[in-house]
C-alpha cells in the first residue's frame, strides 16, 4: 500500500488534467493506496528564491506561502505524482514552482527517496508533443535519485476556448494505471 501525494499543477479544477488525475486516483484508491490530492490552482506558490536559508535552518523554507502546508504531506508520502497541463511545451509554472521549492528538504544535495509518476494533458497529439517535459521529468527524478514508476500523457485534449474535453480513452487508461499500481 502506498501513500501517494498527488500534485495537480493546473489552474482549472474542472479541467482535463484534474479529470485525468481523478481517474488515476480512483483506480489507485480501489487498489488500496492512500491518495492525498493537492490542487495547486487554488494555492499561491512562488518559485524558489535561492536564499539558501533552508540549508542553514533545519530545512525550513523561508517563503511563507501555500508550500508550507504541502511540506508535511510530502514528508509523509512515499510516492509523488505530478500532474500538469502542457504549457508552452513544458510543465506549468505552478508545477515547476512546486518542484523548485522541494530544494528546501534537501540535505547536501541529497533528497529522501520517492517513487514518482507523471500525468500530463495537451492540445497537440504529435509524437514529440510531450518530449520536453517527459525528458525533464526523467532527468530530474534520476538526478534526485528517485524512481519513476509511471508516465501517462494525454494528447489531443480540447483546450480553454470554452470546450474543454478529454477523451474517455485517456480517463480509462489513467484509471487502469492507478488500479495496476503495485
Ligand atoms: C498558456 C497555455 C499554454 C499551452 N501550451 C500548449 C502547448 O505548448 N502545447 C499543447 O499541445 N497544448 C498547449 N496548451 C493546451 C493545454 O495543454 C491543454 O488544453 C490542457 O489539456 C489544459 O489542461 P487543463 O484543462 O487541466 O487546464 C496550452 C494551454 C494554455 C492555457
Question: What portion of residues is helical?
Answer: 25-40%
What's the CATH C level? Answer: Alpha Beta
CATH architectural type: 3-Layer(aba) Sandwich
Can you summarize the main beta sheet? 5 strands, parallel
Write the layout of secondary structure elements.
Blueprint: E1 3-8, H1 16-30, E2 34-39, H2 67-76, E3 79-85, H3 93-101, E4 115-121, H4 131-143, E5 147-154, H5 168-179
Parallel strand pairs: 1-2, 1-3, 3-4, 4-5
Helix pairs in contact: 1-5
Bound molecules: flavin mononucleotide.
Pfam families: FMN_red
Protein name: Flavodoxin family protein
Domain NADPH-dependent FMN reductase-like: 3-123
Q: What does this protein look like?
A:
- The longest helix has 15 residues.
- The chain is of the alpha/beta class.
- It has one domain: Flavodoxin domain (Rossmann fold), CATH 3.40.50.360.
- Strands 2-1-3-4-5 form a five-stranded parallel beta sheet, sandwiched between helices.
- The model has no long low-confidence stretch (mean pLDDT about 95).
- The site of flavin mononucleotide has 20 residues, from helix 1.
- It comes from Sedimentibacter hydroxybenzoicus DSM 7310.
Amino acid at each position: 500500500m502506498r501513500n501517494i501525494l498527488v500534485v495537480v499543477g493546473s489552474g482549472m479544477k474542472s479541467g482535463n488534467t484534474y479529470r485525468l488525475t481523478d481517474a488515476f486516483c480512483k483506480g489507485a484508491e480501489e487498489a488500496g493506496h492512500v491518495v492525498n490530492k493537492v490542487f495547486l490552482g487554488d494555492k499561491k506558490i512562488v518559485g524558489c528564491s535561492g536564499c539558501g536559508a533552508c540549508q542553514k535552518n533545519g530545512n525550513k523554507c523561508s517563503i511563507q506561502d501555500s508550500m508550507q502546508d504541502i511540506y508535511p504531506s510530502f514528508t509523509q508520502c512515499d510516492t509523488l505524482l505530478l500532474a500538469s497541463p502542457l504549457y508552452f511545451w513544458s510543465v506549468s509554472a505552478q508545477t515547476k514552482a512546486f518542484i523548485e521549492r522541494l530544494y528546501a528538504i534537501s540535505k547536501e544535495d541529497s533528497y529522501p527517496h520517492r517513487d514518482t509518476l507523471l500525468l500530463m494533458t495537451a492540445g497537440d497529439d504529435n509524437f514529440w508533443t510531450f518530449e520536453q517535459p517527459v525528458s525533464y521529468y526523467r532527468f530530474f527524478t534520476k538526478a534526485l535519485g528517485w524512481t519513476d514508476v509511471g508516465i501517462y500523457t494525454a494528447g489531443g485534449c480540447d483546450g480553454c476556448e470554452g470546450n474543454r474535453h478529454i477523451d474517455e480513452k485517456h480517463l480509462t487508461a489513467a484509471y487502469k494505471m492507478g488500479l495496476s499500481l503495485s
